Amino acid sequence: xTMTFICSAEASQTERGSKLQDALHEALQDYESCQHxxxxxxxxxxxxxxxxxxxxxTKAIQHFYSIKMQGKVPMHKLFLExxxxxx
Length: 87
What we know:
receptor, hormone binding, mainly alpha, Nuclear_hormone_rcpt_NR3
């Protein structure tokens, strides 16, 4: 769900993104209710961790980018390409 963050300005894209998010949310609810019936709030707890996950990912990207800029540690080319795509 964190990957489906909607940042498009077009209404049709936003609507499709919202439908995808709704479908993923429903799938998560169904899965959690079947697999973890003893904790009915588990899906909500998972959703509440998403902002922290996004914040942590941003800090990790910043950290690796600073390491890249220092040039002290060799990095794999694929990793560098992925890092550049995020910055």
